[in-house]
Amino acid sequence: MKKRRKSVALEPQAGPQALPAAEEELNLWRDPLVHILLVLAVGFAVYSNIISAPFVFDDLPCLVNNPAIKDFSFIADPKQVFALPINPDLKNNFVLRPVAYFTFAVNHALHGLDVRGYHIVNLLLHLADTLLVYLVLWLTLRTPALQPGRGEGVPPAEKFFYLPFLASLLFVCHPLQTQSVTYVVQRFVPLVAFFYLGSVALYAAARLTEAKGARLACYLGSLLACVLAMKSKENAFTLPAVIVLYEFVFFRGAVTLQRLARLVPFLLTMAIIPLKLAALSSLSAAKNGGTVAGAVNLVNFNQTSPWEYLMTQFGVIVTYLRLLVLPVNQNFDYQYPLQKVFLAPAVVLPLILLLSLAAAGTWLLATSRRGDERAALRALAGFGIWWFFITLSVESSVVPIDDVIFEHRAYLPSVGFFIALLAAAFSLPERFIGTPRCTSRPAVAAFALLVLASSAACYQRNEVWTTQVALWRDTVQKSPGKARAHFSLGLALANTLPAWHTDDINVMLQPMDSAQNQVLAEAVREFRASTKLDPKSAPGYGFLGAALMVQRNFEEAAAALATAVALEPKDARNRAFLGQLSEARGDLAAARLHYQQALSLSPQEPYPHLFLALLSMRQGRHAEALQEYEIANQLAPRPDLGPKIAQLRFMVGGR
């Protein structure tokens, strides 16, 4: 059966620019609805294996153990969070990103800590971002700067019809996006991208719409999305700059007061994040005795030099580009050295490459005003390059962040990369007049293989996230010199053992089978490796001591726990571990003293109350045991505590 022929609906062209009928193709493949359905199908397929992936790493303090997402009163009055016994950075984060934490609070209200609901929301956000990538490009192809002059050929919206589809397809299945989507707490990234892309799309729609009411609605929607982006993640600070760039690249004409007035409200939103940071800086300084010198120190815990951080980022940005081109050896926690010498090859060579790319982007934008047949593609490519640099500038510039590299930071910048890449592909010499070479059958076959390979790599990368042990094994293999990776693998291994899922030291010391003992031995090795790499890590020594205690190696356990307490005297957990060790050795009086010291340091932590309750039970002090159990259950309700409390109430007189 013959395929139907699809002709391009154009006015007759005169002279050498006359276009023949388009090559045979099914109308089905030119239907945007088909494009959208295919992109969604690919997205669901490559992330189908992560719906039940566990909470990992920062998910635990930010979500699982964070009281602020379990009560909407904190959303209504974020300053309440400063009274909670949680990490100071988490408090600042909560205040800076209220929109993101609101979505987590909704998740918790609907299904508690069932991880599947959190993953589903993350995936839906990623798919929404993908559709917005399609929409932004679809609208951009219709902007005035990309329209041909009279008699100049096929409009870009027709000639580059497949460009939005190809860009969104690459975006949805690229393996580098996995950390942004699969790592639950990094919902900040797809969420800010949703408002960021939505703001650009609505701005473009407002500029293209002729109806006054619709134009105003789109403009106000764009401005609202801009504000919501600012309250989702700090890299939204760059959004007004992208809006300004979009206006002057794709909407030509004189710089008038009307155009400037249209942009001023967006530029004013750039004050939201600095003002919030300044307020938090003052608040933190007041609460910490003036130790926070400025807003930058809210994220710069290692007191890294801005200049050293910037030099390091030259190589980091090139690493992001390499991962976008060839996504191999992805890593959850990179072992990336801080650069201290400007003339080092690791600084100079990446800088030369980045300056060359920036110069190329500038040249492409400047020459896109010539009005020739490739002007539209030069405008797209130049805009894509500068999108990449602008959206990355908050996290890869002179503002030091504790971790110099994380894959999720390339999520939003990757949109610009894909735009520039496809603009370059469509710039290849045409097969026929008006027919891009990259839509030929060999090119389509090559692109299909690329998407298939990318999808397989994305699915495979997601497999690493299906267990905490698998994730940290992969990380340790790729970052063997990183103490945090070894510590996290040791903790993940320990949490697979029954001994680490009980409050009772007598149960913890029960014999395990040979396989479990091997896992425990591996956990001890990982904790030892973490303390060797970071001798000042109190948590490393603390959990090493706990693991050694479960091994019944009491002497080494005591030494490790003593080191942990010396390194961090105010850490209640290590005091509690010392109490358990004293119980294991039969010194109940010392155990009680350690538990009471732990409670004096962190009265809001449930575990010292639980340990003290069990000890009181053993000593026949049932009234004290009841009191401690009731406090622990109030701080962190658990279904298994109800029967114990009821039994103790009966024993002490039916309270």
Automatic annotation (TrEMBL):
Transmembrane region(s): 36-57, 120-140, 160-176, 188-206, 237-257, 263-286, 307-329, 341-365, 377-398, 410-428
TPR repeats: 538-571, 572-605
InterPro entries listed in its UniProt record: O-mannosyl-transferase_TMTC (IPR052346), TPR-like_helical_dom_sf (IPR011990), TPR_rpt (IPR019734)
PROSITE patterns reported for this sequence: TPR (PS50005)
Keywords per UniProt: Membrane, Repeat, TPR repeat, Transmembrane, Transmembrane helix
KW Mitochondrion (keyword) present: no
Keyword Disulfide bond: no
Pfam family, one: TPR_16
Protein name: TPR repeat-containing protein
Native source organism of the sequence: Geoanaerobacter pelophilus
